[in-house]
Amino acid sequence: MSDPVIRVENLGKKYIIGHQKQQNYKTLRDAIAEKAISLKKQLLKPLGNNIDDRNRKEFWALTNVSFEIKQGEVVGIIGRNGAGKSTLLKILSRITEPTKGRIYIKGKVSSLLEVGTGFHPELTGIENIYLNGAILGMSKAEIKRKFDEIVAFAEVEKFLYTPVKYYSSGMYVRLAFAVAAHLQPEILLVDEVLAVGDIEFQKKCIGKMEKVAEEGRTVLVVSHSMSTVKALCSKAVLLEQGQVKAIGLVDCVIREYLNFNQADTAEKIVKDEDHLTGISKLRVQKIRLINSVSNLFRVYWQQPISISLDIEVFEQIEEVAFGAGIRTIDGTHVYTVHHDDNGTHQLWKFEPGEYSIEFTLENSLRPGLYKLHIGADQGHTSSKNICWLDIINVEILDHSENGEVPLQNNSGIVIGNSTWKAPKIFTG
Ligand SMILES: Nc1ncnc2c1ncn2[C@@H]1O[C@H](COP(=O)(O)OP(=O)(O)OP(=O)(O)O)[C@@H](O)[C@H]1O
């Protein structure tokens, strides 16, 4: 376990959306056939471009992805829907080309990228085994040698002469997994297929992948099941919005993912132990997002974040400055504001009792998950904390209320606004 067998350097994948027909998942065979057709088109019409530029929108599914995988490592690729996991596996299995960056792969790759990958619906189980084996690089003799093992593993003996269009999705995936795993690849890429099979079959697949790894082969698995990832993998890569958010020991990466993988509910009852600093003078009882989307701590892109706080004050306090702030989920401080930032410099005084406070944060954050911190200081000069908490995951959706999406070609945590002037414009 030493040499890297996969090296991914500054990988980026841009999709052009808006002009394309909605497509279902493409099988490996579809992708190969499509590649051949598009190559033919390019050759016949080298300068042709039938993309309607008015509808053309660029979308980066992966940006600046870099990591190394060593031989024999079993690695889980995790992340929320749309994080870029499948795109990464498609690039590694060379079904899709990267827009930027490089991949280096040492060894024969076999991949199982989705239910029914490479299966022809009209062909029988047997015919599909031979077809898939051939697509995945096995010789006829090799397939023959492996045939019984594949059939026994997939448990589809009774249906070998049935066209696979009559198979259930579970039967499909069993056969597809059996073919991919028995090909004895040096690198096995498996994308979220285990969820389809029953528990027994899932266990069997995990066992098979462990065996593949024990033989010194490398396995990359995309899964939403943290128990599968934990059971199988020693290492994990967490993708978030097309970027590597964390990489390392599986437990650490899963912990990071689970802590931050979703927005909190729109109303949160705050416990004493949730407070980061003391609660002798004041405590927060409840935090509520007034303008929540789907009853979660979630707002549309560009929508201000309006919050109501219920607090309890235990003793008279003066010169109180309430504040709120935002951090990224990896801890980068974006900003903190205080209630008296408006120029009045009027600090608040409280008698013991219960109060309700409302405030609104303007929102120029990029879509994503953030941590909201809320609290109170006593006086600005001494910056004395009265109480602070950092317990809310707030999500900025990837579109505005009326469906607009941010431009993809700018970067940063916040969306910047600018005006430009030029004395003379040069074109061409
Ligand atoms: N062919 C395509 N054209 C345009 N956009 C695409 C295409 N394929 C994927 N995308 C987009 O790229 C992003 C990443 O997709 P991808 O399938 O890699 O995510 P994922 O992490 O595997 O998601 P999931 O867990 O839901 O399967 C998504 O926003 C998706 O809509």
UniProtKB/TrEMBL annotation:
Gene3D superfamilies: abc- transporter (atp binding component) like domain, P-loop containing nucleotide triphosphate hydrolases. Residues 39-266 form the ABC transporter domain. Keywords: ATP-binding, Nucleotide-binding, Transport. SMART domains: AAA. CDD domains: ABC_KpsT_Wzt, Wzt_C-like. InterPro entries: AAA+_ATPase (IPR003593), ABC_transporter-like_ATP-bd (IPR003439), ABC_transpr_TagH-like (IPR015860), Bact_Polysacc_Export_ATP-bd (IPR050683), P-loop_NTPase (IPR027417), Wzt_C (IPR029439). Coiled coil: none annotated. GO terms for molecular function: ATP binding. Belongs to the ABC transporter superfamily. This is ABC transporter ATP-binding protein. The lineage of its organism: Bacteria, Bacillati, Cyanobacteriota, Cyanophyceae, Oscillatoriophycideae.
